[in-house]
Amino acid sequence: MADSRDTILARIRSGLGRGPLPASASAALDARPTHTRIAFDDDLVERFVARFCSRAGTVGRIASLSDVPAAVEAYREAHALPGRAAVARPLADLPWPAGLVRHEGPAGKDELLSVTACLAAIAETGSILLASGPDSPTTLNFVPDHHVVVLQANQLVPDFEAAWTRLRALPGGMPRTANIVSGPSRTGDVGLTLQLGAHGPRSVHVLLVGGDG
Amino acid sequence: MQVDSPNFKAKADAALADPHLREALGKTRIMFVNKRAELAAALPEFERLRDEARDRKNHILAHLDHYLERFDEAVTRAGGQVHWCADAAEARQVILDICQRVGAKSITKGKSMVSEEIGLNDALEAEGYRVLETDLGEYIIQLAHEPPSHIIAPAAHKTREQVADLFHAAHGGERKTSVAELVTEARLVLRDEYFKADVGITGGNFLVAETGSTVIVTNEGNGDLTQILARVHIVTSGIERIVPTLEDVSLFLRILARSATGQETETYTTFSTGPRRPGDPDGPEEFHVVLVDNGRSGMLGGPFQDMLRCIRCGACMNHCPVYGAVGGHAYGWVYPGPMGAVLTPLFAGLDVTTDLPNACTLNGRCQSVCPVRIPLPELLRELRHQQHQRNLRPPAERRALAAWRFVAERPRLYQFTNRLAARAIKGLAGDTGRLHSLPFAEGWTAFRDLPAPEGRTFLELWQARHPGAR
């Protein structure tokens, strides 16, 4: 479609009343701007938990990573889920009980429970940031009815801008898929009435590790 | 999709007599308007963010060619492909060609207003593809064979009972009536479809030049399932949706959800950058961005350039008293409300959309809530001006305006006729102070009384109260 590319660029320049920009303009145009951020002085953990829970997300506090399997088992029993879960590879070496059938994903159509790590969490909005990669299939974030996310307190960042820094610092730069998840799936499309569990997870549970909990 | 704006008046009349629509539209206000007001008031930075968003959009538009080329380079670097499409026909053809090349049978779609704009579903179905909308609102109107009536809540005009009927007819089984049951039913029906789909098509709220990412902002998660489970992911987006950097995404995220649904954030914000990478256990094998111009570039440098700042939040229609009375379908195309009343004439032609810019009371509420401060009433006034210049207004209106102008340009005559009219109408109204009918204004008095003037003009009162002043 080289022709249409040229056509569109020519129309844009004609509308703007100028020719192509000189190459010397690029550096200034591509510089990262500093926009207004939202000021807050809440404690990051408190703000994250309050915001995330305000949209029907749930948070459990645990002392260390080795407590994850027991917390997942308790969650599974509380929701009467069968003894099977998609557990992302970074969490595979935790002391999981023998009775839990595990696989590393991707998620199948009837997947009920996934347990994943995350890249960061954003206190500003109370959101989780997940990055795709060989160890973290994106289907685990959307297909199962229940998504349990393991978040370490030192992964909490104040705002979007700090989250972008984490994304840019990944070995391959921007991952194929980056998901900011702020709670369970919801819809207002039937009778403009809020309903959880539209297409994605009906429940998103964060296990917050550490952070003086 | 076909433009049906010439029937605005007939459709508006029908809408005003539709009790289901009255019920549905009444909820829009409660759902969106109040929540937006609460959040705007709770954020001290909100007005400053709107200023910055307006200024940043202006900067982007002034350098649109640069950022589009940067975006193309970055998408290509990530292994994806950008398809520049000058018009709707080219965009449809590009997508049809991709679907044919990959041997697609089943296509799932997340919500995309650009795909509505280019009439994509009809084109795909005409070629025998199975197309399924997965956004719950879009799914509902696809079952009803209707266009969207709102850009972020496409089925805002449908009541729960109407959805229950549609689902019962489409899915069979017992007729479900609660919102929870209906949502679950759609969830289960659509779940299989994501896994079967060959091609997943989504929109793009933002296109990030720096990274070559496309961004969708949603609440349901259907767009994510659509793009992650299909073999091929196609993004349809307008050229004006480009932003330079991730920092700009933060700026617009901070105003988008607050303005659109009155939430601090929507549930999902997803960045897609290229296709599946080596070692990735899931994700699409191909990633295509269909970049649609379709008249947008022609708005640059002209009186309607400000409209290209639009981030498609829907706040203008949520706050519009005309939209709130007649709903979205009366506007006759894919974009309703104030932003649609500007865009439809520009995309479809002034001659077939003459009612739209005039179906505005110029109350300014849309402008007061627009997150990127688009002067919508001014743009609508400019469209009226162009209609007048191109002789698209009815002869009676032209004669009336010419007569008014003749009088208005002669101050003494103007004051004299005003005095005469004020007294005459007061006399006609008699003791009630109200008129049940008035010649040349039957359209007004058919539905309400006209309050009569007090008998003296503003100028007379001013002169009486401020002796000596001019």
What's the total count of β strands of chain B?
A: 12
- Runs of chain A in which pLDDT lies below 50 for 5 or more consecutive residues are none
Could you estimate the helical fraction of the residues of chain B in percent? 40-55%
Helix content of chain A: 25-40%
Shape of chain B: globular
Q: Based on CA inertia axes, which overall geometry of chain A fits?
A: elongated
Radius of gyration of chain B: 25 Å
* Element-by-element helix/strand order of chain A: HHHEHEEEEEHEEHEEEE
Describe the structure.
The complex is a heterodimer of chains A (213) and B (470). Chain A is of the alpha/beta class and 213 residues long. Chain A is built from six helices and twelve strands. The longest helix of chain A is centred in the N-terminal third of the chain and has 15 residues. Chain A starts with a helix and ends with a strand. By secondary structure, chain B is of the alpha/beta class. Chain B contains 22 helices and twelve strands. The model of chain B has no long low-confidence stretch (mean pLDDT 94). Classes of the chains: A alpha/beta (213), B alpha/beta (470). At the A-B interface, helix 1, helix 2, helix 5, helix 6 and strand 9 of A face helix 2, helix 3, helix 4, strand 1 and helix 8 of B.
